[in-house]
Structure formats: structure tokens, C-alpha cells
Amino acid sequence: MSTQNKTALVTGGSKGIGFGVAETLLGMGYKVAITSRSLSSAEEAAKKLSGKGEAMGVEADVRNLESQKKAVKKVLDTWGSLDVLVANAGIGHFGSIEDLTEEQWQETIDTNLTGVFFSIKASVDALKKSEGYIITISSLAGTNFFAGGAAYNASKFGLTGFTQAVMLDLRDHGVKVSTIMPGSVATHFNGNEPSNKDAWKIQIEDIGELVGDLLKMNPRTLPSKIEVRPSQPPKK
């Protein structure tokens, strides 16, 4: 499949999984817009990636539909089409239901679930025109619950189901939809500072490779839900 003049929008692409996905897409020949709530962070990440291809930083907040519409418009105004949406932006608040605050609950749901809804709503018309691809980044926490995970589990269980329903809604329009559900990834998530101690974890480039593999898949075949985990986690 030729990627000449193909474009992608990666939410939360200034670091972590989004950055790794953007790097892979640029290496495949895509023009890539990466979003962050901080314009300086988005532009700094795009500058780091500029040697790989044509990257653009865009300020956008997935929790706001109008902000997502502006991001999509920026892509269309700059490059003329949108072919791939990677809905990656996410956060995590963890703690017992006794301690979880209303603000933490709302921010988690607004970012991890409603944010993906807004990202897709803002881009669906453009993706129908291009018969494009939507990839959401869920989590193994979207099927496996754990103590202290009430807000995060709820958001990711919801995201997994939401994505699968969207897949059924859009496949007759030629739009493919998949969700990737990683386990532990070496990122800054939840205050972690990636280092050699994270060598056993999934690396951001591994998720990028998965996204690339999905985009290369024969159009007749759709891996709609992919679980991925470290092959050799530390023994407990």
C-alpha cells in the first residue's frame, strides 16, 4: 500500500506511546500531526521527529469537542485529507473507591473515554471520505479489573466496548477500526520515569510497530482487538 500523501493524527503524541506511534508512521511515509494540551510540547516533539518526515505539532484537548474539530481542520487545511486517527491520549488515577475523588473520576472518564468519542466524532467525516483507519489505545485493564482501578478500569472497559461498536458502525463506510490493549509499557505514565528498570516492559516502538502492522494488513482482514503484554515480566 502506498503511503504517499497519506496523513495521520495522533492524540497525546508528544511523548510515550503516541510519540512512538508517530515515529513509526513517519518512517512509513505518513505526514503526521501530533497533539498535546501544550502547544510547546507538541511542537517540540514534532521538531524531534522532523528528521523522520513531515511532522506537525497541534495544540488540542481531547476533553473538548471543539478543540478536536480544530485539530482535524488543521490537518485538512494543511494536507487536504485525514487517513489515520490514533486515539492515544490517556491518564490514570489509581486508588480505593474510598479515596478516589470526584475530580479524579471525571478527569479519567473525560480523557480516556469521552476524549476518544470526541476525537472520532471530529474526524469521522474526513475518515469516511478517505476510507481511513481508526486505532484506539485501550489497555489490558479494559478486560482485567484490579483493586484501586475503579476509574481507570471503568474508562478502559468502556473504551474497549466503545471501539468495537464503532467498528461495526463504520465498516460499511470502508473505515477500519481496531483497538490495541497493552499491558505494562515503558512510558512516563502515572509518574514513572523510564529507565533500565523498564527494560522488561513493552517499549513505545513496539506499539508503533503494531500500528504499522495493522495499516499494512490486507484490506479484507481486520484484527479488531489486539492484546499485547510483556513476554517475560518479573516473577512476583
Automatic annotation (TrEMBL):
An example Gene Ontology biological process: monocarboxylic acid metabolic process
Family classification: Belongs to the short-chain dehydrogenases/reductases (SDR) family.
Organism: Christiangramia oceanisediminis
InterPro entries according to UniProt: KR_dom, NAD(P)-bd_dom_sf, Sc_DH/Rdtase_CS, SDR, SDR_fam
Organism ancestry: Bacteria, Pseudomonadati, Bacteroidota, Flavobacteriia, Flavobacteriales
Identification of the protein by name: SDR family oxidoreductase
NCBIfam families: PRK07326.1
Domain (Ketoreductase): residue spans on this chain: 6-189
Pfam families per the UniProt record, alphabetical: adh_short
Database matches in SUPFAM superfamilies: NAD(P)-binding Rossmann-fold domains
